[in-house]
Amino acid sequence: MTTKTMAPIALYDWYEKGLYACRSKNFIYAENAFNKAIESNPRDANAYYWRAFVHKRTNSYEKAIEDYNRAIEISPNTSRFYTKRANAYCKLEQYQPAIEDYTKVIRMEPGNAEARFDRAVTYMQTGEYRHAVDDYDRFISLKPNYADAYAYRGISYYYLGKYSLCYRDALRASKLGNNELLEIFKENMALLRSSRTI
User: Measured between alpha carbons, how far is residue 86 from residues 107, 120, 152 in Å?
Assistant: First the structure.
């Protein structure tokens, strides 16, 4: 057997070992396995992707972003690489690059509901509530029975001063099992009424 035929077998072996270690939550071994897989083939985007996963699980978000960068360099049209890098940016409170990555995913996959939802949440972190509402609208058109989408859109409406729309979404969220916004809304309205009687 020649060296050329052995290299792919070694790569597959270490890559599979890394995946198995991830499933077992043995992240130290998983990182070592993916290191060896990358040494065998530095052009394997998935090995970088999974090593980035390991870094995220161990809260090493900067390292995760570095590996996602490398994966994207190798395979720039793989949407999940951008999604996961955006998640890592959010963990570091680097919201603008996260929004840019979610936007790339949406351009690649206009029907990607998860990216719409995640970008909406990130817009809320930056105070861009109008943009958040637009994304929640689109998400709800794709997944109309997701309670949190109504709750978060209602919060966005609240910060935009659109209290009737906030209340409407609070009711919708409550019907779908999320009562938190409705309770907060009722408490705030009770405080507002009591302040007017003082």
Answer: 15, 13, 19
Q: Say what the pTM is.
A: 0.86
Is there a contact between 11 and 41 (Cβ–Cβ < 8 Å)? Answer: yes
> Could you tell me the two tokens for 90?
């959010």
Structure tokens that stand for 23 in this block = 């499933």
Domain extents for the chain?
A: 1-76
Question: 58: which residues sit within 8 A by CB, 6+ positions away?
Answer: 27
Top CATH class, 1-76: mainly alpha
What digits encode the pLDDT tens for the residues 151-168? 999 999 999 999 999 999
Total residue count of the chain as it appears in this document: 198
CA atoms of 173 and 195, how far apart (whole Å): 27
Residue 54, token pair as written in the block: 């390991």
